Amino acid sequence: MMSIPDVQNLYARILAEFSKVIVGKPDILKFMMIALLSNGHILLEGVPGVAKTLMAKAFSKSLNLDFKRIQFTPDMLPGDVVGTFIFNAKSQDFTLRRGPIFANVILADEINRASPKTQSSLLEAMQERQVTIEGYTERLQEPFMVLATQNPVELEGTYVLPESQLDRFMFRIIVDYPSHDEGVRILERALKGTDLPDVNIVSSRDEILTAREFVTKTIHVDRDILDYMVKIVESTRDKNSEIALGGSPKAAVHLLSAARAAAALEGRNYVIPDDITQLVFPVLNHRIMLKTKFLTDINSSEDRYQYKALNQVLSGILSEIQVPR
Fold first, then answer.
1. What does the alpha-carbon distance between residue 117 and residue 100 come to, in Å, rounded to a whole number?
2. Omega within 30 of 0 (cis) for the link into 143
3. Model confidence over 80-108: pLDDT tens digits?
């Protein structure tokens, strides 16, 4: 039987392995664990060279989950992602050749380089945990998690992710440059050689599924906490002078699921307001659209992804809503 200490122990084991190859970034691993335990997907956004791919590999290897990397390119077709039926001359029949989407952890590398048609091939898998190929539908093995990456700087040959695609992601995580001290530690590791330390397997698929079920069935949420979450999301739609498009009800559902997992990692079987406030930015920053006039007024219109402006708006919303006691 799983318990809160078991969930915390699982997190500590994964953090120890993650830290072998990634300098710093414990907050990003925490969001990865929260998404895994709450059936979510993550969009990792950052410039090249900040270890987005390495994070995904280290995370999946420590869990002993089936990992596939899909390098998205403009000429990629939906069949390259989900698979297709091919004719078998020996049996005189069509055989399903499964695509890389059939894995537990998918690294969708540079997802915004693929055409909208190819991007849409992920929608059914991310939402319904199944794939339909030429009328044939097959369930994906649980757990199933997409870790997508995109580069916010190099825009040539890319496509902006549509709202329907962005809404499938529980979090958009900004992977920033390392601090000075972290940069020094990275160079110290480089001095010792180019080989990366081996990541040990410290968990299993069954343990992850058990932990996820425990979080879903055990972590309690009071009615006033639910009211607090809904007020936050509603505030992004309440004719806010800075926001053109607010968060949907699905945003509130993702906030609830993530808050329960966050509470378990903190050693509690109930959600508190602090669990919610730490999740507001990663859950909502890719779901709201700011008005052009507001961006112009604060000189942020040149920032395509508007990190600082979004943070300013969401922080303002949080400051105006009474925190439940």
1. 17
2. yes
3. 998 888 877 777 777 788 889 999 999 99
Between CA 79 and CA 73 the distance in angstroms is 13
> Rounded to 5 degrees, what are φ and ψ at 95?
-115, 140
User: pLDDT band at residue 155, thresholds of 50, 70 and 90?
Assistant: low
What is the pairing mode between strands 105-109 and 145-150?
A: parallel
Which has the closest alpha carbon to 121: 84, 68, 173, 96? 84
Asked if residue 257 lies in contact with residue 282, where contact means CB atoms within 8 angstroms, the answer is no
Domain coordinates in residue numbering, the chain: 4-75+103-191, 220-320
| Distance of alpha carbon 152 from alpha carbon 46, whole angstroms | 6
Q: Which two tokens stand for residue 14?
A: 């994964």
Which residues are bridge partners to 177 per DSSP?
Answer: none
Is domain 220-320 given the CATH code 1.10.8.80 in the classification? yes
Per-residue confidence (pLDDT) for residue 301, from 0 to 100: 46
In the chain, what percentage of residues exceed pLDDT 90?
47
Grade residue 195 by pLDDT with cuts at 50, 70 and 90: low
Average pLDDT, the chain: 87
Q: Which of 267, 270, 246, 248 is nearest to 259 (CA)?
A: 270
CATH domain 4-75+103-191 topology: Rossmann fold (3.40.50)
| pLDDT over 70 (residue 298) | no
CB 182 within 8 A of CB 23: yes
* Contacts of 26-34 spanning 24+ positions with Cβ under 8 A: 28/55, 28/173, 28/175, 29/55, 29/59, 30/262, 30/265, 31/171, 31/173, 31/282, 32/59, 32/147, 33/261, 33/265, 34/171, 34/258, 34/261, 34/262, 34/265, 34/279
Q: Kindly report, residue by residue over 233-264, the tens digit of the pLDDT.
A: 999 987 667 888 888 899 999 999 999 999 99
